[in-house]
Write a structure and sequence with these properties.
AhpD_core; 0% strand; oxidoreductase; peroxidase; peroxiredoxin activity; mainly alpha
Length: 123
């Protein structure tokens, strides 16, 4: 069965909303950690998201793949940049990471197509 990463991230976001009401301190702390870790520093935000997507592949986390590929599209990542990050994930994670690299590539295409469809038409 094919996964719609748009639907997956939307669904997980709703589920996280429920957790946010049940364990607000934990979710607030996690959000702060993510904000601090992804802030531009010696590495820019796009590079950090490329690392995050590679780790998502290695961890075989579908929601993570969705959120991080969506972020990469928003940050202007190219398919070539994604492919190189996926190559490193496959190198480090072997066959299971190869399977998730293919899924991540599909997620990138899905979010790219949605972004292109939502973009205003050029004059």
């Amino acid at each position: 069965m094919d996964i719609s990463y748009t639907d997956l991230t939307r669904g997980i976001s709703a589920e996280l909303g429920q957790l946010r009401s049940e364990i607000p301190d934990t979710l607030q702390a996690f959000h702060a950690l993510g904000k601090a870790a992804s802030a531009a520093g010696a590495l820019d935000k796009k590079t950090k998201e490329l690392i995050a997507v590679a780790l998502s592949v290695a961890a075989r986390c579908d929601p993570c793949v969705g959120f991080h590929t969506q972020a990469l599209v928003k940050l202007g990542a190219t398919r070539a940049e994604l492919a190189e990050a996926l190559a490193m994930a496959v190198y480090m994670g072997g066959g299971p990471s190869l399977m998730y690299a293919a899924k991540t590539s599909a997620a990138f295409d899905e979010f790219s197509a949605a972004a292109a469809a939502a973009a205003p038409a050029s004059a």
